[in-house]
Amino acid sequence: MIRRSIDHGMRWYLAQRYKRIHHYMYAPLAVQKSWLHNLITSAKQTEWGSQYDFTQIKTRKDFAKSMPIQDYESLKPYIDRMMLGEKDVLWHGETRWFSKSSGTTSSKSKYIPVTAQNLRTCHIKGTWDTMSMIYHQLPHATQFRYKTLLMGGCVNPVEGNSRAQTGDVSAIMIKHMPFVARPFFTPDFETALMSDFEKKLDVKAKLLSKEKDMVMIGGVPTWLIVLFKKILELTGKHNMLEVWPKLQVYTHGGVSFEPYKSQFKEFLPSEEIKYFEIYNASEGYFGMQHHPKDEDMVLLMDSGVYYEFLPQSEWYKDEKETILLEEIELGKNYALVISTNAGLWRYTTGDTICFTSKFPFKFKVTGRVNQFVNAFGEEVIVENTDKALAKTCETMRVKVADYTVAPKYFEGNEKGGHEWLIEFKTPPDNLNNFALLLDQNLQKLNSDYEAKRFKDLALLNLKLTSLPPGTFSKWFKANGRYTTQAKVPRLANHRRYVDDILQILQSQ
Length: 508
Description:
This protein is of the alpha/beta class and about 500 residues long.
């Protein structure tokens, strides 16, 4: 009875929040202009604000001209000083939290500042906005009557500064979860924040196999699949709805959900389960799915982030020029450029997005600037390979755990092509037929690839290697990246990842 009353009260509260969401969905330009003014004003007295003379910035065009586009390496010297406790560097005051992101381009970690303002107005606010959207779209939502799954990492003190902590963004959010929300999450925080990831999965599986009130789950699909398998082994059940009969919603993000859809339909065999994509990166909470039947996400305009967009023609120039929100064109790929109240200024996240709607501005994540294969002018991006693989799996009734793709360069008189490494959950009966159909589906999605493949004139049919189960996990462990943040790099325009994984395969 008490939980029912709490849920009714939260439904009213989230309905009030949704009014603000509706406002920035249809009046985003004024909201964005206001946030830029807020960011510049707040950082005028910082070292960065002084260096780039924030007192002279009056317009959005002034801001775009005031400093070059930044990446992690250009901000790293400032961030390093912030981690050691120095104040007023990129943002005012002292920053005590840093989100650790291994990324997908190297095993080297990145540390993204998470200021108190950024945590409150971006990450936590984005979570509340997502809950508001879920309650708005699902009349029978009961997230504040039952339990939601916590899939977090761990936190550790910064070396050389015990006042500062570092961990993946999920762990930082758990540490700062509002008290009003804590009773509705499981497992307990001690378990959720365990540092030994393998042990944590085992402990979670045991605890969650006995949980009957699970109503919502969230996390990267790859790791949830591992957890599901462990729980089903412990319970002897056929699917997760036999374990969690009250389950309503799965929020996912981090990687494309396309290759995992068929597997989740087996784990959650009900049309009543709703899937919501979110875009909560280490750098900020940027998007949430608008409706269960509309897979595009709404860009979060009122969360301490000012957005610019880098057209594809600018990605590899020394002096890059961005465009503003009102200048974007639907259907084109842009690299996301952000300025935030964490002290990231005109910062490229590395993600690429494509807008599908204006007013509201809705988008889908298409990949990463550095994740593509264009060794032969084919310009293949992650969106192409995800969709081609999903279509092939659906046709041949095959399930995939993970994959990566790299170019196979010309050798002697041989032509080049693409090399795919796929870890199958259920492998195809005929690997060659699967590879042929995958190649055909990729041609249908990418005209440049199709042109290069025409009669094998420039490129040969893709080469496909089936990896034994657990190969990618072994690769993560070998590189010290076995965490909830670990993501297999889908595409690379080099062979470092593929050759490294093939070497592990040979050693087995």
